[in-house]
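Hi R.,

Here's the chain you asked about this morning:
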Amino acid sequence: MAGHGRLLVLEEMHAAGKPPPESVKAADDGTWMPPILRGWSSRSDADAEAYLVAANRLTERGGWDHGMLAEMLTDIGAADAELLAAAAYTGDDRADLDELVPRDPDQAPPNPVTGAGPAEQVEPPTVWGVVVACDSGAEQVELLEQLTEEGHSVRALM
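And here is the predicted structure, written out as tokens:
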């Protein structure tokens, strides 16, 4: 579902003959066995795809506090250069890091998040929804029938 970029970095580290990170176990034959989270379920493939799109757009839409990002990347690089690579900051990206690290606080790039986000600019919906939890299918049917008789537009969720 997610984590493909981390897996690629681990494969590159393994191919380069580096030792596995602390959280990655090595099998007897030397194969790395990174931890895998299982148990994801979604209502549909479209639901899963929507999650992937949203999860990968978070940083795009949110922007960065450049000073804090530079500080974090500097700390990561000082602690472990491989971790910095796992965070997608490799040799080619060092110029980006150097640009973000303020040598002089007055020279720091501005934070790009300056105003209200899209959520604050959206018009309120014309239709509102309510989710009601029922103890049984029979109770759900009874409630749906009652609300329909009262003139509400209803649909069942399972």
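One quick note: The mean pLDDT is 74.

Cheers,
M.
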